[in-house]
Amino acid sequence: MSESLKLEVDRRDGLAVIYTEGYINNQGGEEIARAAYQLIDAGHKTLLLNLTGTKIVNSIGISILIEIIEKMIEIGGRLAFCCLTPTIEKTFHIMGLAQYAGIYADEPAAVRGLAPGAADGPPADA
Amino acid sequence: MVSPAGTAPAAAGWEELEELAGRDPAGRPYLERLLARWIDDAGVRGAALYVERDGALRRELAAGEGAFPARLEGGELPGGMVHRVDGGAVASLGGPAGDGAPPQPATLLLASALRALTLRERLKRQLFQESYRVVELEALYEVGLAIASTLDLDQLSEEILLRAVSLLDARRGALYRREGDDFRLDRTLGGEARETLVAGDPALAELLSAGDGADLAEGGAHSRAPHGPEGLLPGARHLLVVPVGTGPSPRGLLVVGDKESRKGVGPFGASDRRTLSMFANQAAIALENARLHRQALEKERLERELELAAEIQRQLLPECAPEVPGYDLVGWNRPARTVGGDYYDLLPREDGRIVLTVADVTGKGIGAALLVSTLHSALRLSIGPTGDAPALAARLNRHILESSAANKFITLLTAELDPATGGLAYVNAGHNPGLLLRAGGGREVVELEPGGLPLGLLPGSAYRGGTAALAPGDLLCLYTDGITECASPADDEFGVGRLVDCLVEQRAAPLGELVAAIDRRTREFADGLPQLDDQTLILLRRHAA
Question: How do beta strands B46-53 and B56-64 pair?
Answer without folding.
Answer: antiparallel
